[in-house]
Amino acid sequence: MKEILSKLNQAFDHRVRLGIMSILMVNEWVEFNTLKDTLGVTDGRLASHIKALEKEQFIDVRKRFVGRKPNTSYRATETGRKAFTGHLDALEKLLDTTRD
What we know:
There is one protein chain. The chain has one domain (2-99): Arc Repressor Mutant, subunit A, CATH 1.10.10.10. The longest helix has 22 residues, at 78-99. Helices cover 59% and strands 18% of the residues. Strands 1-3-2 form a three-stranded antiparallel β-sheet. It is of the alpha+beta class. It contains five helices and three strands.
């Protein structure tokens, strides 16, 4: 059990970060407002969780202008994809051990 728990990634302990990565795993690029609306969080709360994932190099940021409006989008990096997949695998193993 301890071995399984050690494979859980603390970067994904919070539901907002788990949600961000879940969304980014199935989409190429996702805009800030789409993440905010989908997760039902404030700008500040989302920004702080994005910053934490950026620090771990789990997500890439793309800033550009659409017309005259700034537009920020995010995607999961290869490092982030591997880390998130490992986290999900550990969760599945943990669930399997509790079902026995």
